[in-house]
Amino acid sequence: MRTFLAAILGFVFVAGAVASELRGTGDLGVVVERADGKLLVVEHSANSRLAEVEGLGDLSHASVVFSRDQRYAYVFGRDGGLTKVDILQGHIVKRVMQSGNSIGGAISQDGKWVAVSNYEPGGVRVFDAASLEMVADIPAEYAPGKFSKTVGLVDAPGNQFVFSLYDGDQIWLMDMADPRKPRIKRFEDIGRAPYDALITPDGRYYIAGLFGEDSMALLDLWHPEKGVRKILKGYAEHDEKLPVYKMPHLEGWAMAGQQAFVPAVGQHKVLVMNAGSWQQEAEIDVHGQPVFVIARPDGRQVWVNFAFPDNDTVQVIDVESRRIIKTLKPGKAVLHMEFTPRGENVWLSVRDDNRIDVYDTSTLERVKSLQAMKPSGIFFTDRAHKIGL
Amino acid sequence: MLKALVFLALCALTVSVTAEAVTTERQTELRNLVHQDCGSCHGMRLTGGLGPALTPQALQARNHDFLFATISEGRHGTPMPPWRTLLTEQEINWIVDYLKTPEAKP
After folding, report:
1. Nearest CA in chain A to B74
2. CA of A80: which chain B residue's CA is closest?
């Protein structure tokens, strides 16, 4: 009898261990399959697909942030849906429709608050990261009765959020000390039509790209009392401005040493500026209008993808020589690029070919392809521990 | 089969004669362009984003010529770019009809 019980116990133990095989989440990520409203859960140790999560609504322009334990993904959908996904178990934990039309979001320094940037109604809403209960609603009223679309929402040290007002030409700094009544500091007349923004990896500088003028707006978060100043003024004044078929993205600050690489709006150029003086140091002619300009984590290379109709191409810039060392033609419509945490590989979403391609960043050769339906954003969990992502 | 025929007949009725010059294959590409590329500003389901919504309802008050001119020339002072260097007149006409037609959306 005793041996029988022991055998049963042994069996139960083994079965339990198999059913709930332990794994970490540090090598996980998600890929947005936007046409199907689905998320693919992937891992980048063996470059494979792990699970599919359905029912996320309209995922055009969807973006994702992660909980600090790297288990949950918060997905911001175009239709105003905010979805919390358990990527270990591959299912939706909670989903709220929080607005009519949203563009992205951020998670606070302490991991407790998720903020969503909305177009309709224009403003930012803040949610409890655990329950997705709304704790604050901040309409972006820039003039009496006038509400702005909000863009470029990021987290900043000091448990703050920063965002820009596309219609209102302002930057707002939001202090979450009292989450139900965030304190707002407004910066007005920062330049025309900020379309996106980024924060430097150290969390010190917030920089908004301006669609309405050839410059960028810089806010030093160590010294907000000094206000916003313009940098890269008139970077395109000697060149013909081309029509823009896709707005550049500023997320994923391409910073390599003291150099910052940013897309020029309406030009076939990547601008290089000194990240101390904020003066332009060089410009690099590239294949088309850049959309994402992203540095490999070690800062030795910068990868660039392009707006329609040049979105079949990706170029690799050697940071030291500022030369293009490779022009890749991965396929139709390369939408996004994500480096593995230490940068040995980069994943590209090739939307119209329904593929994710994995490239080795030292040989610049493709090492693997994964099937994905109309993939757009790729997000790895190491973002959980990066300021501004 | 019958359903497909009825659907095709409906499409033929709702799409104006200007669209005839666009091949079926090209129509598939244009549909993809509208949702995926125009969609980067107007939303993949055309419900709006940085740019305004382009649903048939939202475009009700806009006539064909206005929409043709907007796509062809762009809108000065906004991010809307001119598409005339990338699309033919027939293709722009097809897109205007497509946007105005509720039945045709995937």
Report:
1. A243
2. B49
Q: What is the ipTM of this complex?
A: 0.71
Closest by CA to A327, choosing from A314, A310, A309, A338, is A314
Rounded to two decimals, the pTM is 0.87
> Which residue type sits at A324?
I
Sheet with A355-360, edge to edge strand ranges: A334-339, A345-350, A355-360, A366-371
Domains plus CATH for chain B? 23-104 (1.10.760.10)
pLDDT exceeding 70 applies to what percent of chain A? 93
- Tell me whether the omega of the peptide bond preceding residue A144 falls within 30 degrees of 0, making it cis: no
Residue A374 has pLDDT above 80, yes or no: yes
User: Given a cut of 70, is residue B16 above it in pLDDT?
Assistant: no
Structure tokens at B2: 């019958």
Q: How far apart, in whole angstroms, are the C-alpha atoms of residue B38 and residue A52?
A: 27
Measure CB to CB from residue A247 to each of B47, B79, B86 and give the nearest one. Answer: B79
User: Does residue A305 contact residue A314 with C-beta atoms inside 8 Å?
Assistant: yes
With an 8 Å Cβ cutoff, the interface of chain A facing chain B consists of 34-35, 58-61, 78-79, 101, 103, 119-120, 149, 151, 166, 193, 195, 211, 243-247, 308-309, 333, 351-352, 374
Q: What is the pLDDT of residues A73-87, one digit of tens each?
A: 999 998 899 999 999
